[in-house]
Amino acid sequence: MSNSDVWMRDVITSYGLLSAVLVLVIILLLRKWSSLQKSIYKAYLTGFEVECAELSRAYKKQLFKPLEHVVSCDKVLQSMGCIRLLEIGVKTGENIQFYPENTRWIGVDRNVRLGEYLTTGHRFWPFSRVIIERVIVGDGSSLKEVPTACVDVVVTTRTLCSVTSIQSTLREIHRVLTPGGQYLFIEHIPENEGTFIRWIQKILSQTGIWPSLFGGCCLNINPIEDIKNTGFNHITWDTFTLGGDVSQPFHLILSKQHILGMAVR
């Protein structure tokens, strides 16, 4: 056998084994993909999103300050000095602390175990300051359980990036708000065109890699034009860059630019 034949045999043997191992790894990953996705997303929610909420605390105080002066459209709640607030994308409930006590709260989230989390979870205590009226499993694109013009305030924070349809969700927000009701939002937006990070955001979003691991989140979404086109009477917004120490810095690098604002029906 010539040297070239020996070399070819060794290559086939080595790469054949490598290919077999690679195929085996792929099969194992596919079998475990669903549970892997859930584990990664849970770690993301209870890790980075909680840290992100703390980093944005000052901005949330600014955003939610107008809640102190909201007068409910509901005469009964008005007489009690309460408001009705609908939140889309509850996650771990980090926003609850900013709502007025005894707020009538409607929560919308994809987590099918949200109701259980609210009543028996170890983080139950933040929710004790509000009265839970209803829990809806979904992403906000359909709120058929909520009557038209019955909500005083709608809140989304880092939520529109992962809804099935931004336009449908915003139309539902507009519909359920009472005339004069407020839509308060903080949403992450992509970097400027032409930057390396913007290119990464596009690749990860358009290939489906990022959405598949992080609850449908798309890093290349800027909802401000959709908000402006929904039919609100008055919209104000500003931008800010989130910074600080987090355990998963690549998440912050990819979603540090934000818009903060209010839209009035």
Automatic annotation (TrEMBL):
Keywords carried by this UniProt record: Membrane, Methyltransferase, Transferase, Transmembrane, Transmembrane helix
Family annotation (InterPro entries): Methyltransf_11, SAM-dependent_MTases_sf, Thiol_S-MT
Entry annotated with the keyword Ion transport: no
UniProt cross-references to SUPFAM superfamilies, sorted A to Z: S-adenosyl-L-methionine-dependent methyltransferases (SSF53335)
GO molecular function: S-adenosylmethionine-dependent methyltransferase activity
Transmembrane segments: 12-30
Residues annotated as domain Methyltransferase type: 86-185
Signal peptide span: none
Pfam families noted in UniProt: Methyltransf_11 (PF08241)
Gene Ontology BP annotations: methylation
Protein name: Methyltransferase-like protein 7B
Species: Habropoda laboriosa
